[in-house]
């Protein structure tokens, strides 16, 4: 510990030395000795001693008391006076300087020592007290709470600046006045005066709180809400020194609380009454708060949800992972907010809820994450509607199979996959045979039911990774993915044809359908979806041509055929415009008389390069392209003119038969054309027979029936061509106003050896006669056929046996001129 520094002021040199010696002996450090008042002041400034030993009587102008006063004022250094005099006046003066000791010379060393120690200790205590007072004073000065201290009677002793501001009074003005006069306290609820807590505290010597909401009214009449209370000030032995009143103006806090409450209420009602689901979610995903709408979305009660976890409601699928990822990004402050579609579980097992989920993060003022605010909207209906729209856009509404557009897309995808993996795929283009007929005879409703039933069967026949689509009408397509060999496609086509051949029972009707299937295989028959589809379609047409109810592969030959079809189409247009068409006639022989009774007009095309072209090569193309309508009109006109000429020439002839194609019924005003032609050519209607195929009649039976009745009224004869090859026309036959039927060549060809043909021909003739119809057999080539037909009383005959179709002049010069009779088979032809 450092020795205390002491300065000596003594004008007697020997005395000063003696004191110095004693002080040094006591262990003090003597930092200086002054001999006058002035010197004492400057040395004190210089050495800053802990204590000054000051002689009162000094030489010079300034005595020790004045010097001590100056040192005290400037440096607050304690002073012990040394004097030989102790008169009361000097002592009084010395006392006013706040002296720390007073030693009367001569003094004993122990007196000196004790005085110094007491003075140093006292000074140290005073300094600490001062420091502490200063510290408290500053603290009270700074705090925002108002502090008023009173004596035991409640008189004001102290007020800090906050109290001065609140009461609008300065301490000097109110010091010693009663605190209860300075402020009045009122109960906020009823404005009754409340006893000042200081008074109660002084009475009870204990802390008194303001128990109710309290208003403080100052002397100016200003009032504001306050809180806190009073506490007693007790000294160490517990005696009451006074009380301290502490209060604060809580108007601002009240307002903030009010605003906060309002804002909380607003938030709460917005949260609770929101039409969409809302939740506060803890950082670990647990629900902290959920609203009514959210419970409704998931079917859980509030209590159940509050025990649940947001992630637990989502599927562990990609959306669930996305949600997790986004929540983590929110937490890491990498996203301000997010919105995603999430599929969630409902309380009802198996039920799913589609939601639009948006979330943001709530952070405290330091940016620390607190919780998530999550908004959840039920978009299940929208999602289903979207899915429904997508489904409708991609599927055929009748059968639920893929539609044409979607099939195209899926085929394109499948193609890119097989191209990558260098594998094969096949398309089966399936068209129901004679579906239109079924539709027309049984009605569209049953037609639709049949298409649905066919779809179901097809569905059951394809493998899971194959695709099935309905392209429209009765056309279906099957994509066989990843086949090893074209034979696989053939096997499936065969199986499909067999499958469809089993009768369908729809509303009590047993319906048998067959199908024609065209097959194209990637990569041989095309590399893109368009070509593959087109080629499968072409192959399907080949299957139709080859008798229906079979499948055909696409071949190069087919492409050539379609090219030829186009050439023929172009050529036919040219032929019509450049008069290249011709009519040949084949006579029809009356079985009884053996005389020619009529002739069938058959069209030929005299092509400049190809020579004479037969109808087998171009009639189908004319039919498909619609060119049959103008060609048919030309045939009709030419045949009528020819027949009229023969009639006028009195040739052995009563009737010309003209073929009418199905398309002529549908697309042209057949009745008007015929009536007009008869008028223009002058041929009597009875000399014209129209040959209509069964299939033409059956395409649209109601319209056909109407036209046929008109034609009958006109007097034109009507005949059903190719009879026996059609679907089930017997019922219609009775209703149609036809005069004759023509037995198809395919039945005559096997006569009389084939039992089946014999039975059929016999039945047709008997049935036709029963219905009072005239029967013509075509394709008679042999004597045996002739005698069988004669025996069955077939009315009329046509065939190479009598004459091939020939040009009119040839017929006139040969057959007609010869006056052919049965029994003269080698008539010219
Ligand atoms: N093997 C054999 N064939 C015989 C015999 N007798 C007749 N034919 C052939 O059988 C066909 C009969 O005509 P279709 O059944 O009406 O069949 C016709 C008809 O459906 C159609 N056709 C011909 N001309 C016209 C026409 O002007 N308009 C329409 N719409 N179709 C026509 O073309 C088909 C074929 O006509 P064509 O080639 O002239 O062939 C004719 C004829 O030459 C025979 O004893 N043996």
From TrEMBL:
Alphabetized SMART domains for the sequence: EAL, GGDEF, PAC, PAS, REC
Q: Where is the Response regulatory domain?
A: 5-120
Q: Where is the PAS domain?
A: 132-205, 263-306
Modification type 4-aspartylphosphate: residues:
55
Q: Which InterPro entries match?
A: Biofilm_reg_signaling, CheY-like_superfamily, EAL_dom, EAL_sf, GGDEF_dom, Nucleotide_cyclase, PAC, PAS
Instruction: Provide the PAC domain boundaries.
Output: 210-262, 338-391
Where do the GGDEF domain residues begin and end?
A: 423-556
Note the PROSITE patterns from the entry.
EAL, GGDEF, PAC, PAS, RESPONSE_REGULATORY
Keywords from UniProt, A to Z, are: Phosphoprotein
EAL domain spans which residues?
A: 565-819
Q: Entry's Pfam families?
A: EAL, GGDEF, PAS, Response_reg
Q: What is this protein called?
A: EAL domain-containing protein
Origin organism is: Methylomonas rivi
